[in-house]
Amino acid sequence: MWNSKTTSPVSGVACGRSTDRRIHRFDSMSPSPFAERVDGLIRRAESVLGDRLRALPVNAARLAEAMHYAALGGGKRLRPLLVYASGEALDRPADELDAPAMAVELIHCYSLVHDDLPAMDDDDLRRGRPTVHLAFDEATAILAGDALQAMAFEVLTAVPDAEASRSMSRELARACGVVGMAGGQALDLQFEGCKPDRAAVEDMFMRKTGALIHAAVMMPTALRPDLAPSQRESLSRFATAIGLAFQIRDDLLEVEGDTEAIGKSSDSDASRQKASWPTLFGADAARERIEELSGQAAAALADVEGRTEGLTWLAGRLLNRRV
């Protein structure tokens, strides 16, 4: 549960310590020992995910094929990497983090399948390939998304520590529901053709995208019941800031990127009159907001004890990405 001292993924990010002090801004090009392990962690995440998908019953071949297509057809695996990096900061071994890493990626993949549907964003491309409802059909895409979501929670039931399993399931469920992705997508549809104010847009972004990023960072805390509340709060503030900044960066890429580079139609937001940050407030304001959020995230992470180099490097990737 969220408490009054912890930043909710659907609230603002103004709480926490001042960012006036000199702090390190995230730089994705800075050398990091974590960067040397990223490829191995991606392979690890894809291996456990692939093993799970290959175990699907053969009498559901078409549905299984669509799930494979959605989950194993590329992607940067940023959310599983956040799980591993957060767990590393909390001194948890990788094998304890495989389940939450797999679960959060399954939820992410399910959300992409459903977001691309004609009734939602109606996109033709995802990760440089036809979206699932075009590669298969709309009904199969809906069922594939449903099944990926169900599998995520099934995965978490295998976590040996029952309390940790419940805690992670609760965190992930909250990120999926009304105060998370589902609520954010509803607001996204509601705001089409409108001009919501900045607070409303940020609320939508924190639900639609930020909530799952927040969950990826926070789920490993369930494996550390002894963690001080102040440490959990600092991780929460960090995750909240980068989650919001990530979506603002995504909006910038929609405007400034090209279809081949970003793997989806670069004009999809404009064609549906989406509530896009650059469209509503300007590209320069978007970049300034990302920089402000970067400072808040760095200040929060500076208060986290442990090996935070992975979270630092990943924040740089999220906030400075070009694709």
From TrEMBL:
Keywords: Isoprene biosynthesis, Magnesium, Metal-binding, Transferase. GO terms for cellular component: cytoplasm. It holds the Pfam family polyprenyl_synt. GO terms for molecular function: metal ion binding; prenyltransferase activity. One of its GO terms (biological process) is terpenoid biosynthetic process. The keyword Translocase does not apply. Its cofactor is Mg(2+). The keyword Transferase applies. InterPro entries: Isoprenoid_synthase_dom_sf (IPR008949), Polyprenyl_synt (IPR000092), Polyprenyl_synt_CS (IPR033749), Prenyl_diphosphate_synthase (IPR053378). PANTHER family: FARNESYL DIPHOSPHATE SYNTHASE (PTHR43281). Belongs to the FPP/GGPP synthase family. NCBIfam families: FPPsyn (NF045485). This is Geranyl transferase. The lineage of its organism: Bacteria, Pseudomonadati, Pseudomonadota, Gammaproteobacteria, Chromatiales.
